[in-house]
Design goal:
The protein has twelve helices and two strands; from the N terminus they run H-H-H-H-H-H-H-H-E-E-H-H-H-H. It is globular, with a radius of gyration of 19 Å. Strands 1-2 form a two-stranded antiparallel sheet. Strand 1 and strand 2 form a beta hairpin. The chain is mainly α.
């Protein structure tokens, strides 16, 4: 997302000048939530992520990342079906089956090595395919950059998270915490990119918008979805 933002905000001052209530009507509120998220990150998440990277060897961290990546497959499968991407849904179902079994509950991406490429779909993208507009930009507490449509999309997606169906509440808490720390650890290097920006809030906002546009239109710059070739 940050790489896209670098290309988008070659002139941060110019972007700031063109910011208005039409594309970010909740800017004052959003900036307050953004500052809250930044504070929480600086006092809790970032220190935990740094400790995690120092204490856990990279090969082990890679297995943890692969494990949580595999848990996102059911969400992708269902949303691919809802978007009419039958071929991709079929491929991702095989990915999930292979990695959950042969790949030892997703610790190893066996399917990827066999040529089954991972995709990522969510209900926010599904709503966009159905014609729902993104709505105003919105910064969510803890979750960060979003918009009204994608924020609403998080609700049905939450029902497709396998962790929610674990009977042991203690195990759920541990897995949630590990997922958050692992995700934050993978973003440690981009903190320097944010520190270089004149306005990190604007940088993240435009990065998010560009990234979502590419995800929704499957990388097509013209805003037209590519048909499911499968």
């Amino acid at each position: 997302m940050l790489v896209v933002g670098c290309a988008t905000l070659d002139n941060p001052g110019e972007s700031a000048a063109t910011s208005n209530s039409e594309n970010d009507p909740f800017e004052n509120f959003n900036r307050g939530v953004w500052r809250f998220n930044e504070k929480l990150d600086s006092v809790a998440l970032k220190p935990l992520a740094r400790g995690y990277t120092k204490a856990v060897p990279r090969p082990v961290r890679n297995r943890v990342t692969s494990f949580f990546s595999n848990l996102s497959e059911p969400k992708t499968i269902v949303n691919s079906l809802l978007q009419g991407k039958i071929g991709l849904a079929y491929q991702d179902a095989w990915r999930f089956l292979i990695n959950t079994t042969v790949g030892v509950v997703g610790l190893f991406d066996v399917a990827g090595r066999a040529g089954l490429v991972k995709h990522s779909e969510d209900f926010g993208q599904t709503l966009a395919v159905w014609g729902v507009k993104d709505g105003p930009y919105l910064v969510l507490p803890l979750f960060g950059p979003s918009n009204v449509r994608d924020g609403f999309g998080r609700i049905p997606d939450s029902y497709l998270d396998p962790i929610d169906y674990i009977d042991d509440s203690g195990a759920q808490i541990v897995l949630r915490a590990l997922s958050i720390v692992d995700g934050r650890a993978r973003l440690l290097r981009v903190s320097r990119v944010l520190a270089m920006q004149l306005d990190p809030y604007l940088f993240l906002r435009e990065s998010y918008r560009q990234r979502r546009h590419q995800a929704i239109y499957d990388g097509a710059n013209g805003g037209t979805r590519e048909p499911d070739s499968e």
